[in-house]
Amino acid sequence: MTTRILGPFNRVEGDLEVHLDIDDGRVATARVNSPLYRGFETMLAGKSPLDALVIVPRICGICSVAQSAAAAQALRSLMGLEAPSNGLLAERLVTACENLADHLSHFYLFFMPDFARPAYQHRPWFPAVAARFQALTGSAMNEMLPARAEFMHLMGLMAGKWPHTLSLQPGGSSRPLELAEVLRLVTLLRGFRRFLETRLFGDTLENLAALDSLEALARWRHGRTGDLALFLDAAEDLGLDRMGRARDAFLSHGAYGLFPDGVWEEGAAAPLDPSAIREDVSHAWLAGDTRPPAQGETRPVADKPGAYTWCKAPRYAGRVMETGALARQMLAGHPLIRALVAERGGSVQARGLARLLELALVLPEMEVWARQLKPGEPWCAHGDLPESGSAFGLVEAARGALGHWLDVRQGRIHNYQIIAPTTWNFSPRDEGGVPGALEQALVGLPVEPDDPMPVVVQHVVRSFDPCMVCTVH
Amino acid sequence: MTAPLNLLWLQSGGCGGCTLSLLNAEQPHLLAHLEAAGIHLLWHPSLSRESGPEALAILAACAEGRERLDILCVEGSIMTGPQGTGRFHMLSGTGRPMMSWVLDLATRARHVLAVGTCAAFGGITAGGGNPGGAVGLQYDGDHPGGLLGPAFRAAAGLPVINVAGCPTHPGWVLDTLLALSLDRFAEADLDPFHRPRFFADHLVHHGCPRNEFYEFKASAEKASDQGCMMENLGCKGTQAHADCNTRLWNGGGSCLRGGYACVSCTEPRFEEPGHPFAETPKVAGIPIGLPTDMPKAWFVALAALSKSATPKRVRENAVADHAVVTPAVKKTGLK
Questions:
Q1: Distance to chain A for B127, nearest Cα, Å
Q2: Superfamily of domain A2-472
């Protein structure tokens, strides 16, 4: 048995360290360390509740709007507000824009460059993949970066800027649009569709979204050009469809009124029960005991026996959950994703495919929402904050379920607790010694004895699209 | 053509948002921009291929002087806690606090950039009692000091260049890099908080599309109102140093254009304004934070006058979320 400490992992949004015990050429156990602690939950205590809208987006530059939306939703619930139709549509459009842009960044900038490593130079797909996806120099950069930046004009239009907007409000949106601006929005969504259809998919979004089985995917792929086809070439050759399985238990908060909330375990979906969520700190450098997030606490202790990360361990009814696009599409019942998981389990390939599929599923909905906006009608409802009360906001960031739990007393924030997607996925062991989702997914991976940074480990890590700055916050 | 400048980028106690903002660069896109500016990325945590030992080898070569380090960019504040140990951020794979890496690398770099308000001054990460012991590279809030100390000069002679902002505008970072690359950046190009003057000599107020409402002190009262946000909603645009409303974000936006107040995110200590962010603190009904260089008595007198002269259109539109009164159409032709 040998032990290896891997890090830094770049292209994971933040800092990450992974400890592996390797036995007989395979990962026997894994421990995941989130090495940055900033203390946002502590900072929020004592603030005016609406200040959360300024502070929480700054937890994370990549899930910034998702953090805003979770806070706005918690405050909306606390204030008993109902956002008008325009406000809800604006919230959906801005949230979807961030999530889809993140899917794109993940695929082109964070995930695919690993397949352009010299270690793969003798694979048949390598020349095409390397030319397209080499970090910093791949030809895809010249198309993807402008397409992403132009898509993000939606943020300039509807949220002032990205990241770190303050446009999402408890009552809706602070940014009413005029007709000319709605038309600009429709046009820029068309532009992004054009990029996805010509470069990423080589087909219409609708055709991609309609793929409903492994056979349909195999047929679709035959002779197909485009960046997704390149990924599928590498995935098949490397067996990514059987790599990186956790326990096939999925959790989603539901998104856009389009994908339902719920949990998926042992082949069946059930509605989400937020009261079943607890956070365990047994292996984190934090004091305290297992608590529901509404009563959670965050007290760092740098020297704690048995602890190996700043990350808490969220559990649902005591069990480890995986969250992300794969979870969302499992719960939404997308037939291709359900078939992939039924046949081969959650995997690097299934996670990647679910993300790209969401680009095809959500953009057409954004086009519909844009046309439903009604300039001249209200965008934001208004009301007063109660002196005291508690509420929560559950949303989906690109990388999965994000929850904020807010407790207000005497007009001030008494307690604010956050569970981010990667807190779920990269959680450490709990008091029962059960490893988190990534820790499980790494077990069994083949590792060469002289390879200091095994690329298969990197594939599995990045397949979760981790956001480390959110994880501990 | 001189050799490209070697740039190393590190992230510490921040959110990564300044890097994500940088990806919004356009015409040309980020990587083309860097190439055109003569910048060679030695390593960037979000963009480079190298992980683990490959990445650490680059850092070590720079720290030991084996690789020329022209520009060190640090994004995020420096986590000094708990109790000055830096254990709130140990650079993974090294067992060593990030603050110690930054100290070593900063002494080797020809130029050091603090990218974002966290790296410049501590920023949002230093808010709420600063539980993580966050400081900027050369400032702790508005006090010179920080990790490197007030006397620090990078090898080429400049102090840390504070490309402040939460996040930074991609243009602020790229223009700074280009100016360095062209050898067009001197100490005189830094303002008193060591921010590049090309953006810090402007006010956020400049170019605000709500200017007509400001002129007449026709004020918004709630989110989504069209009026000026200075009197009631906490907007600091008339005091905050940045060119947000002339440079514009994401193809044409800005905070004020997004319908929400400027929180003065380029300023030291913006994270603790001493009042709720979206409320204007007032004394006897008059905002205490008046435009930076205007005599208070004149401001009050002009405000009273302009309020009484406010056209109905401006007054009513200020508290509506769309134009309820449109500009009058003259049938006699414009003169």
A1: 6
A2: Cytochrome-c3 Hydrogenase, chain B (1.10.645.10)
